[in-house]
Amino acid sequence: MVLFKHWLRRGVILGLIAVILGGGSTTTAAAKTVTKVAARSAYVMDAQSGQVLYQQNADKRYPIASLSKLLTVYLTVNAINQGKINWDDQVPMSHDLLKLSHSYAYSSLRMKKGETFTVRQLVAAAMIASSNSAATALGEYVAGNNAKFIQLMNQQSADWGIEAHFISSSGLDNTDLKDYNLVLPGTGKKEENLVSAKAITIVAQHLIQADPSIVQVSGKKEASVNGTKIYNENSCLKGQSHYDKKANIDGLKTGYTENAKLCFTATYTVNGQRMIATILGGDTTFTAMNKLIKQLKKQYQLETTALTDRRISLATGLATTVTAAPTSSQAGVWYQDKTAGLTTTVATKLTPAQMSSGTVNAGEPVAQATVTDTQTGAKQQVTYHSQQSATLFAERVVFKTQPQVDQLLQTLVKPMGAAFEG
Torsion angle, CA of 80/85/91/93, rounded to 10 degrees? Predict the structure, then answer.
């Protein structure tokens, strides 16, 4: 691997050459076609509905470099959400990770002996500066050691059914990891993470769902970690060299190795709808990403419907209701050649645990809205979460019965009672 920062300079130079030779965005305002992306693969989806707007070799596995950190951060956030670790936990750095942080080629955050970092700081360092030491430290803290965390990464990929194989939590390959005792036993000397464009986009979708604020974190041009400045290599952010107002990219993660070339998973919004786009293996990926997003905005129209708080009946025929809020203020469907006709249905959807306990706690899911495009059949589902705790039954019914005494027993007991009284 060459120095991660070198790809930025290389990308700028190649971008200038492309513009000089007429290879920049030449699509006219009237054009409504999406040209093939100048890269190995690409994938664009609506983060809320999962609707796919573009795919190119999307299911084929390729090296993804530091985009691997998206799964590392997801598993970290998931562990936090499950109460296994906390954002403010202090994470010590091992000798090997300190050594890695001092590498000119592989480090963007130099760490000091005895220095500790919070989980929150390490997530920021991994997402903003693509710190390899930070990502690896997160993995070791979540799972106990590096090997167990890689196993967790592959298990999560299998659970989601995505095309992915991981040997590294940072995105470095084995030729880089060998000097830091981070090579997974049983893997090849040159083995690397291989993931499809569709797969890493789905990982990003899960990450954003688990922690929506990660977009804002990844959108910072710079930050400070324990007094050390870190810088973002995403040149498509506002104020950076490749920012394009029409594309308006606001996050998420970049990556580069010689084998992977330029890789980029980007986030942006269209009329409030969160979108995710991935390009793997390009030379002018920032320029290509802006062009792809702008072409898709011309190719597709978004039809939305507003979702608001509503009263949800917890069970059919029972009076108990709760006020529930949707996870998104709107749902939308993308269409090309005709106007979408949207219908919305909301159905109570309780978990087995809620049904078993007979209770619903504040913040738990209680219903699901399904927005359907009657023209195409495309659907988007949005979960409603209860804003209060409640029992499934408005009143507890107690059935009372009059005691019935056996007449023969009563006849026998009476004389005995008289005898004792005497």
Answer: -80
